[in-house]
Amino acid sequence: MVLVILACAPGSEPAGAAVVFEATSAYHHIRVVDEQGIRLLSFNGSQETRMSLLNPFQGHFEYTEFFHMPWLWNGRLTNVLMIGLGGGSTQRAYQHYYSNVTVETAEIDPVVLQVAKRYFYFKESPAQQVHLEDGRVFLRRSETKYGAIILDAYVQSRYGASIPYHLATREFFELASQHLGTNGVLAFNVIGTLRGWRADMVGAIYRTMRSVFPQVYLFPASESYNVVLIGTKEAQCADYNLLRQRAIALIRSRRVLMPSFGQRVAAFHAEPLSNYQRSPVLTDDYAPVDGLLAEGR
Question: Concatenated DSSP letters for 16-68?
Answer without folding.
Answer: T-EEEEEEE-SS-EEEEEEETTEEEEEETTEEEEEEESS-TTSS--GGGGGGG
